[in-house]
């Protein structure tokens, strides 16, 4: 009598190889397993996206602090290498770094330095063009009253503009409270040829972020920090 497999019999696909041997095929994923795998991937993606967004927000919020810290180290290095004092001037719009030129200069000093450097670059271009043409002397140019700003090889000028909505404030060692940089308020941060700078604390507040850092007077590195980012 011919017998048929019962309902409990497990059927598996088989394949015959070129040698005539029968091999058992791999079992396929069931629908339930596929649904579980998709659910796990979706949950992990849902957890990862907010974390990535948080890191991105912190990176953007920290940028003014990082830029100021990097510029402080560069200015300190230049002051020590050249044996001349340098400065970082901070106001409500941003900060600018250059050689320390005038103790009582105002915010217009930055504009004067920009024009002086632009004029120096124009003159350099004229001299280079004359040299290429084989001229013995460069073409004469009108003297510029700002020429003293680029004398002795002055060519360094870096500036950074704060992002919209940032509220900066400073506190130097002799300040009894924080000084908001509002309107035309500005402060100079001087770096001496010895490598020392005035102790200074910088605070940057914006919607959803807060940074407060203190710079070390001997190294211009960040000595302490308080911060939070939503």
Question: How would you sum up this structure, described in words?
Answer:
- This protein has 230 residues and is of the alpha+beta class.
- The protein has a domain at 35-104 and 155-229: minor pseudopilin epsh fold.
- Helix content is 33%, strand content 25%.
- A hairpin with a 2-residue loop joins strand 3 (86-91) and strand 4 (94-99).
CATH structural class of the domain at 35-104 and 155-229? Alpha Beta
Number of strands: 11
Largest sheet: 5 strands, antiparallel
Q: At the third CATH level, what is the topology name of the domain at 35-104 and 155-229?
A: minor pseudopilin epsh fold
Helix content: 25-40%
Task: Tell me the radius of gyration.
Answer: 33 Å
CATH level-4 homologous superfamily of the domain at 35-104 and 155-229: minor pseudopilin epsh domain
Helix/strand order, N-terminal first: EEHEEHEEEEEEE
Please indicate the percent range of residues in DSSP E strands (runs of 2 or more): 25-35%
Assign the CATH architecture of the domain at 35-104 and 155-229.
3-Layer(bab) Sandwich
Question: Would you kindly provide a brief summary of this structure?
Answer:
This protein has 230 residues and is α+β, with helices and mostly antiparallel strands. Helix content is 33%, strand content 25%.
Topology:
Layout: E1 14-16, E2 22-24, H1 31-82, E3 86-91, E4 94-99, H2 108-132, E5 158-161, E6 167-172, E7 179-180, E8 186-191, E9 200-206, E10 209-215, E11 222-229
Antiparallel strand pairs: 1-2, 3-4, 3-8, 4-5, 6-7, 6-9, 9-10, 10-11
């Amino acid at each position: 009598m011919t017998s048929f497999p019962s309902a409990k019999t497990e059927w598996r696909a088989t394949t015959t190889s070129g040698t005539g041997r029968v091999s058992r095929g791999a079992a396929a994923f069931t629908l339930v397993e596929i649904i579980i795998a998709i659910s796990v991937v979706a949950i992990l993606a849902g957890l990862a996206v907010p974390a990535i967004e948080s890191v991105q927000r912190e990176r953007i919020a920290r940028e003014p602090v990082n830029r100021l810290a990097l510029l402080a180290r560069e200015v300190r290095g230049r002051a020590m290498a050249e044996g001349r004092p340098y400065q970082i001037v901070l106001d409500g719009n941003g900060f600018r770094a250059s050689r320390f030129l005038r103790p009582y200069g105002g915010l217009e000093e930055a504009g004067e330095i920009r024009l002086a450097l632009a004029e120096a670059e124009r003159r350099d271009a004229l001299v280079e063009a004359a040299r290429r043409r084989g001229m013995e002397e460069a073409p004469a140019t009108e003297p510029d009253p700002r020429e003293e700003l680029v004398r002795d090889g002055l060519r360094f000028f870096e500036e950074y503009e704060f992002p919209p909505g940032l509220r900066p404030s400073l506190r130097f060692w002799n300040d009894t409270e924080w000084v908001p940089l509002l309107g035309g308020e500005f402060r100079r941060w001087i770096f001496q040829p010895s490598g020392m700078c005035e102790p200074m604390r910088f605070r940057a507040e914006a919607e959803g972020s807060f940074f407060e850092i203190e710079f070390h007077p001997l190294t211009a590195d960040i000595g302490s920090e308080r911060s939070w980012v939503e």
